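User: Look at the shape:
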Amino acid sequence: MGRGNFLKFMLVSFPALAIALVIFSQAILARLDQARSGTAWLALLARLTTGLGVMLFLLVVVAAGRGSYRGFARFSLAYTLALSLVMVGLTETFLPLPCPPTPAQTLLIEQLRRRHEEITKPYHGSLFVPGRANGLGWLDRDHTFNRKGRRILFIGDSMLEVRSRRRLALRVEDRLAAVEVVNLSMTGSDPLDYRFRLNEYAFDYQPEHIFVFLYGPNDFSLMPPYQPYRPRPVRVTRQTIESAQKVGLPATVVEALSRLARGDKIYTDRKSFLEAVGLALSPEQCQLLYTVAVAYSDAETRKFLQSTRSRLENLGTKLVEMVSKGLQKAGLPAPFYPDLQWWSTEPFLEREHKVYQLPPARRLRALAQLYAEFMHTPAGPVYDWLQAQSPQLRSWLTAEADMLWFLAIPLNRLSGLLDTPGPESVEEKRLHRERVALYDPLLTEMSDTARAHGCKLTFVFIPTPGLADKDFVRFWGDLLPTEWAARVYTEVLARAKNRVSCIDLGADPDRFRGGYWPLDGHWTDAANDSVADILVHFLQSQQPVSNNDAAWARPSNCSRD
């Protein structure tokens, strides 16, 4: 090969090689950014590879600007660019990948999945009462949308779903004559999910009063900035149509969705979507159809070059896995990807179920081995740590499977997955101020929305267990700082009292002594009764009872399932 042919070969191959090197190295770096440790040398190598790719590309660019081979270099750049665009176009057109659901959509998908499901998974075996989700997926009985009497509505998370001997909504109904309580609550949701339910579901039930429950440990961690409510856009996808069939919507609905999918149009809100469907549906069918549409839409999740980006992410993951195996075999540090919520993954839950089939005397050691495996840490220190805890904690832990929400924090710190918090940095202080400020407009907006619909709205502030339950504090001692969200909670509550209607359940801490289950922070039966009494007293004080209207009066004997 002569010198001229060799230069031409470099000019035609360098741009493609440069692009490949940059794509591979950037995919690796994107994956390494998610690792906690073991990335130093691999990240350095990836950055050097990026630099090499950029240098090769610049050499061709320089050659295209001057020299006897500039025409060939320009052809090479144009050819490489055209080939890259064609490959991306073919990928996006013929090899599309479904968009992953957002956390909010995941909740809606779970809500659809559990319609009419008999709920059998207990939070506490000793207080387990089977429950059934209704036709719209709420852990509640079915309700009509035509209100015949007085009706109030609850919006919240697992605090309103926990299967104790009697759920809070039913306890409030027991105390009020001729008052119906609708429960639109779901485990794992946050205030943005509450706002969505308020705007899209709540007013269909024509409630007089809505109570939104805000739980201290997890409802005060929203990230700023505040954004006013915007209905979630809908684009009909294949999954939308399949889900509509699964939930039993009429064939005419499926046909209408198929027609809308061909148009590939995005509908900006519920009203425009239902009008486009163009069918006379019952209110229940409209809510179910809209839930299906939002749950499986990709209008918000679809990104520019979605399929190409997803494939590059997968490429980075696979490349790092290949290199990691080689590093491990050589005894060198490999990238480590911790999962701080290992205790909630399906593989863990399956293994945990088997542990609780063992004799009680063998469970603590088996649990220590299970925890250690999923935390990627030696089992010995974990077992010693569990053995060192109070007899009550060990008894709770080995008696039955339970949520590890609180216990997982010291376990993660023991294994090094979670750092022990130090003094608050300047950046953390700024984020704290912005987070507190976010809740002012959010709560005010929700209150104004209810008022615009002729409805009262009250926020129920549920204190973190350490602020309201002295028995909870004594159980944990100095082991676990459970008040990581207490500062935001108390500051938001102090501001809210001057802006919106709210109930502070922590106003009398002694009332909730022994009111929280130590391992998961949910209410006990005693706390559920106390909250029901507080809500009833609040309603009675808001609406005085007359001789002709005893709707808020406490009945002598009323129990309704």
